[in-house]
Amino acid sequence: MFSKNSSLLSFLLGVDILVTTVYNSLPLSHLTSHPYTVCGILGLLLHDPLATQTTLAGTEIAEGLSLLQHRGQDAAGIVTCGSGGRFYQVKANGMVRDVFDAPAVAGLKGWMGVGHVRYPTAGSSAHAEAQPFYVNSPYGIVFAHNGNIVNTPSLRQFLDVDAHRHINTDSDSELLLNILANNLQKTGKFRINEEDIFTAVGDLTRTCIGAYACVAMIAGFGLIVFRDPNGIRPAGIATRKGARGGTDYLVASESVVAQGLGFTEWEDVKAGEAIIITRSNISRRQVATPQAFAPDIFEHVYFARPDSTIDGISVYRSRMKMGDLLAETVKKELVKAKLEIDVVIPVPDTSRTAALNCAQALNIPYREGFVKNRYVGRTFIMPGQTQRRKNVRRKLNAMPEEFAGKTVMLVDDSIVRGTTSKEIVQMAKDVGAKRVIFASCAPPIRYSNVYGIDMPSPHELIAHGRTTEEIAAHIGADLVIYQTLEDLVESCRQFNPAIKQFDCSVFTGEYVTGGVDERYLEHIQRLRNDNAKAKKNQQAIEAVEANEGGCNGPMNGSDALLGRSDSIMGLSNHSPKIGATNMPTPNDTIGLHNSWYGQ
Q1: Which parts of the chain are coiled coil (predicted)?
Q2: CATH architecture for the domain at 39-294
Q3: CATH 3.60.20.10 domain range(s) in the chain
Q4: Separation in Å, CA 452 to CA 124, 203, 267, 535
Q5: Whether the Cβ atoms of residue 562 and residue 92 lie closer than 8 Å to each other
Q6: Which of 331, 333, 338, 470 is the most exposed place for a label (fewest CB within 10 A)?
Q7: Which helix (H) or strand (E) holds 469?
């Protein structure tokens, strides 16, 4: 065991050198975690001691997760803590409304809890990787995370060789949890105090490189929330007067959750800050070595809800400003191209705010030209270009009366692969558009995101290695207009001038945390490309067909599809669906047994 953090850092530096020599010879799953995804985290602590006998915490967390559903549609999970420090868990692949029906939520007893929603990942949708995660030693810790770590090889090596901690998934969230648990265990104490926790989180921030917003729950103690030293991924806290006095506390990725659950005094967690919340007290401290504050600007472009405020910036207002500034660029480009437009039409839904302001600034009519089928999921994460193209037609329908005989400017939040954009342009032409101009509220996306957004590998990005003219030709548009990076930054920074820079790595290829080299980027490219995703999906299908049951022995096909092979590893899932026919028997003696089963 290392007794000092400096020893751990020295070890990790040595491991990085060692791992470099074998980087290309090890299986991918050993080199880095593959879920590159934006997720949603939520923590709730109720002051009312009577809540230990009710399901109020679990009910409110489920409601809160529904407000974060846009951040994660692949899996959802909640773990609550009741009397005696006992944990209760429900988690599974699926939407919040499907995972947390009334009987499932009724089993989530207790006065505090942690929730998580996960976005579909790059070839990873295993039930085992649904969060929150749990370790029983030390003290019983539950953990949820949004972001991505870039030095996973050395962390895995350390946890295996020195800390002797088993990592059961490819998720870097499990790595973060075990680094935190190991730091706490080094105290050797029967019961830890706040000073021990601050020290443990501070050591973690100096060990783990990347983006992370995390909430942890220690059995019977309270909640811990912390953010990476650069503040790349968002998190905040809010308060509410308890039912019988005292103060309830909420932790969430976005402020919209606070508003929806009746909390006020929303405050962003600072970069590198750790906050400890108990029934009797709240303590906060800057625990990380000071770094440049650089929140991810793509939260404002696409991911966050417009009714959220992140790092003091209204997402809605920033998108309005994006439309205003985009209009200035559009005017210049139309003059160059000697074109005039008849109507501005948004690509639903994220771009609506910017498109409306852009149309107003241009003094051109704004129209809704596409009707969206809200029951089809997002497409840029779907494996295979053919499937994406088909899905676009299912997702949107063009109204001929808004396009016929007109020069139309379509406004979208961004252009990623270009597959969706190409189909939308063709749809506009199919219903009679004379010319189609495509405007993006974001600059060209040319580089990988390594901080928690599941974007394609660079060679799949339409702007990678192409000029604007080549992009227009590729998607079939008469003209493509991009927002400038300077205008995008200004559209956000003007609402909080204290933010001197943003993470704009997908536009610039500059990674604020360091630790991102060509080898790492090449590995991500191999991991994220369509072939890797297709192969991963095929392996999952073959596992079902072969009735492979992992450590639990053979399963039937539905068991495998629901991820039940990991069901005895972790917290007990207290959904009544456990009583269904042919379902495995709960085993509460092995950690947190997850026993959610779809009908």
Answers
A1: 517-547
A2: 4-Layer Sandwich (3.60)
A3: 39-294
A4: 14, 22, 22, 22
A5: yes
A6: 338
A7: helix 468-475
Inter-CA distances, 60 with 72, 145, 412, Å = 18, 19, 34
- Interatomic CA distance for residues 58 and 32, integer angstroms: 33
Question: In this model, does residue 377 exceed pLDDT 80?
Answer: no
Cα 35 from chain centroid (whole Å): 9
CB atoms within 10 A of CB 489: 17
Residue 144, CA distances (Å) to 176, 193, 230, 251 in order: 9, 21, 19, 11
DSSP character string of 12-43: HHHHHHHHHHHTTTS-HHHH--------EEEE
pTM: 0.83
Taking only the tens place, the pLDDT of each residue in 31-87 is 233 333 589 999 999 997 664 455 589 999 999 999 999 999 899 999 999 989 999
Taking phi first (over 0 means left), then psi (-120 to 50 degrees means alpha), and beta for anything else, what does residue 5 get? alpha
Task: Provide CB contacts within 8 A for 471, sequence distance 6+.
Answer: 415, 418, 444, 462, 463, 480
Which residues carry out catalysis? 39
Strand partners, 227: 213
Average pLDDT over residues 162-185: 95
1: tokens are: 């065991």
